[in-house]
């Protein structure tokens, strides 16, 4: 049991979600041009066939690929972004902004 305790003691703390969301945005900016090159893929059903063998279309989205290294999923970081945006939004009611600011500081 002592060995496993030392392994866990050496492990780094998990990245806070708000920091992970910023890291995902930086990675998405780098990955976006490459993803734009790959757009296209197979024709949709009923659009006719090209006659050539095409590679399968990847269902991965840039946001999910960018989020992978953060330890959180793309949808989780989307929620973090929504909370941060609500805290900064002038159009949101004051109780919503206050609750969002409190949630953002806890992240």
Please provide a written account of the structure.
The chain is mostly helical and 107 residues long. It has a domain of 63 residues. It has 5 helices and no strands. Helix 2 packs across helix 4 and helix 4 packs across helix 5. The longest helix is centred in the first third of the chain and has 22 residues. The radius of gyration is 20 Å and the shape is elongated.
Shape: elongated
Task: Label the structural class.
Answer: mainly alpha
The biggest beta sheet reads: none
Give the proportion of residues in helices.
55-70%
Poorly predicted tracts of residues: 7-13
Whole-number average pLDDT? 75
Distance between the termini: 32 Å
* Number of separate helices: 5
Number of strands: 0
The secondary-structure element order is HHHHH
Mind telling me the C-alpha Rg? 20 Å
Q: Beta-sheet strand percentage?
A: under 5%
Summarize the structure.
The protein is an all-alpha fold and 107 residues long. It contains five helices and no strands. Helix content is 61%, strand content 0%.
List keywords for this structure.
107 residues; mainly alpha; 0% strand; elongated
SSE layout and pairings?
Blueprint: H1 2-10, H2 17-38, H3 62-67, H4 74-88, H5 94-106
């Amino acid at each position: 049991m002592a060995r496993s305790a030392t392994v866990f003691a050496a492990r780094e703390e998990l990245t806070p979600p708000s920091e992970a969301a910023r890291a995902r945005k930086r990675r998405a900016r780098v990955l976006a041009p490459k993803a734009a090159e790959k757009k296209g893929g197979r024709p949709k059903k009923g659009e006719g066939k090209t006659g050539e063998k095409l590679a399968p279309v990847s269902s991965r989205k840039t946001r999910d690929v960018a989020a992978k290294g953060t330890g959180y999923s793309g949808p989780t970081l989307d929620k973090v972004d929504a909370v941060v945006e609500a805290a900064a939004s002038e159009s949101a009611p004051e109780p919503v902004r206050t609750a969002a600011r409190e949630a953002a500081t806890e992240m």
